[in-house]
Amino acid sequence: MKVQLTKLAHARSGDKGDTANVGVIALREGFYPLLVREVTEARVKEHFKGIVKGDVERFELPNLGALNFLLHESLDGGGTVSLMTDAQGKTFSTALLRMYIEISDDESSKLGLT
Amino acid sequence: MFGMKQKIRVAAGQGFWGDLPDAPVRQIEGGPIDYLMLDYLAEVTMSIMQKQKTRDRAAGYARDFVPLMKRILPTCVERNIKVTANAGGVNVKACAAAVREVARELGLAGKLKIGIVTGDDILDRIDELISRGIELHNMDTGEPLSTVRDRIQSANAYLGAAPIVEALAQGAQVIITGRVTDTGLTLGPLIHEFGWANDDWDRLAAGTIAGHIIECGAQCSGGNCQYEWQSIPDLANVGFPIAEASADATFVITKHDGTGGRVNVPSVTEQLLYEMGDPHEYITPDCVADFTTIHLGDDGPDRVRVFGIKGRPATDSLKVSISYSAGFKAVGTLVYAWPHAYAKAKMADKILRARLDRLGLRFDQILTEFVGANATHGLLAGAPPPDLAEVQLRVGVRGNDRAAIERFTKEIAPLILTGPPAVTGFAGGRPKVEEIVAYWPALIPKAEIQSLVEIIEV
């Protein structure tokens, strides 16, 4: 079955120059391994196609049940240069949570998702 | 240490220059605190202040800090609450003089000392530094600073906690700084109170992370919090955060009783991840903090315990924030109403671009967004529903040719009488041309920067 990340995580995003960062936090401890397995750099890069022009980097924070993504070249130059409404990348958090991941029925019932 | 306090409460009163004006007052009046920490400086703030100083030698700092001090100084003196604030911007001494003036008006002469921290401003030293081979390469692009030399507006090294500790040791009650790191404003008081050594990396990292959590004000206590946001109580009366630190470098994030908002593990976790780079190395002038060692635990209602933090030695450089003039921009908007609001806005954009083309105007960038359809999430938002009540067309242009940007601003309002129907939202008049002040991050060897601490008596 397909599950949207909004069911598995909350998030906060911010900026550093032309790079947006998105911290994705598991809503329950049991969801974290699923995030690590499914929400990869490649998947996130694909998700933000046409929006993120540079690389996507991912860092793991198991202590917080969180992943941190750096989305390079995604803010039209960033800060004061950018013409974007969201020049500081503050809404990239929920944009990432639009992503769907595929999990087996077995796993979803184990995690209490069905 | 005899007489050392068991717990020190550092309260955050401003998350940025322009945050809720009454928040610092409520931190003072809402319950016991030892320090009030006020972070005023964002990257762009320094260049704004530099411009103000160019026009008026007495300006160039966070002016609202002075009336704030007028309101709270009597209570601070009475209860021995100390204030750390990077409100001094690019004119720390003028800011301190203004605060001394209001303190005297309040009859506080002889009752407090003001600490002034400078040494961060390197604007006058740029050529000398470059001539000695310190090229201040852009940390993101690698370009040498000479590329933009003639357009520089401000240049400041980020100082750490050390000068704040020094000022406190000399008895300052209000410490006004220029470009000191946000985290240094919290770490300084903890080093001073607990006597942490300057190579006690774990404790310095813990104090740094305490600073990081509270530096954005209510953003860790319920503001901008996604986790169960609908149920966060009374944000109208949101409590700003307090870091309640112990000598062993564990601390609790909390807020005053009777305030709104919420402090829990999810709210603090969200703030920890805000503007994060590589979590293994959060680099400050004071230490390198490792965010993958942070542990959070519930400690009762609106209390989160933070512990287990590890740090590493500080690097031998300081970050420098340089601002420079980088052309001009303008953004124009119009609102299109149902029916077919999105289609109308799209057509208006097409017409506008054709006219800009015909005028032969050249821009480095033209960006069109349709607010209500895709301005925040772009393609991820999918096709907008056909019956949107309204869509705002938002077109921005950027370039070095001011005249071209100026000409663009005259093409927005005419679309009302010469484009698709059911259009409004032009009451603000012509868009304004803005100078772009861009930001140039660089590193400088620590040995090049000497912070200065001066104490003045009121």
Offer a quick outline of the entry.
The complex is a heterodimer of chains A (about 110) and B (about 450). Chain A is α+β, with helices and mostly antiparallel strands. Chain A has helices at about 30-40, 40-45, 90-95, 105-110; strands at about 1-5, 10-15, 20-25, 55-60, 65-70, 100.
Structure description:
The complex is a heterodimer of chains A (114) and B (458). Chain A has four helices and six strands. Chain A has one domain. In chain A, the strands form two sheets. Chain A has a four-stranded antiparallel sheet. A two-stranded antiparallel ribbon of chain A has the order 1-6. Chain A has helices at 32-38, 41-47, 92-96, 105-110; strands at residues 2-4, 9-16, 19-26, 56-61, 66-71, 100-102. Chain A is of the alpha+beta class and 114 residues long. Chain A starts with a strand and ends with a helix. In chain A, a hairpin with a 4-residue loop joins strand 4 and strand 5 (66-71). Chain B has 458 residues and is an alpha+beta fold. Chain B has two domains: 7-120 and 158-315, no CATH class; 325-438, Alpha-Beta Plaits, CATH 3.30.70.1130. Helix content of chain B is 28%, strand content 25%. Chain B is built from twelve helices and 19 strands. Chain B has helices at 23-29, 43-55, 65-79, 92-105, 126-131, 162-169, 184-194, 201-214, 265-272, 341-358, 402-409, 415-418; strands at residues 7-14, 35-38, 82-85, 113-118, 152-157, 174-177, 242-246, 251-254, 282-283, 288-290, 295-298, 304-307, 310-312, 317-337, 365-371, 390-399, 423-424, 434-445, 452-457. In chain B, the strands form three sheets. A ten-stranded mixed sheet of chain B has the order 11-12-8-7-1-2-3-6-4-19, with helices on both faces. In chain B, strands 5, 14, 15, 16, 17 and 18 form a six-stranded antiparallel sheet that branches. A three-stranded antiparallel sheet of chain B has the order 9-10-13, covered by helices on one side. In chain B, helix 3 (65-79) crosses helix 4, helix 6 crosses helix 7 and helix 7 (184-194) packs across helix 8. Chain B is globular, with a radius of gyration of 25 Å. The mean pLDDT of chain B is 96. Chains A and B meet through strand 2, strand 3, strand 4, strand 5 and helix 3 of A and helix 9, strand 14, strand 15, strand 16 and strand 18 of B.
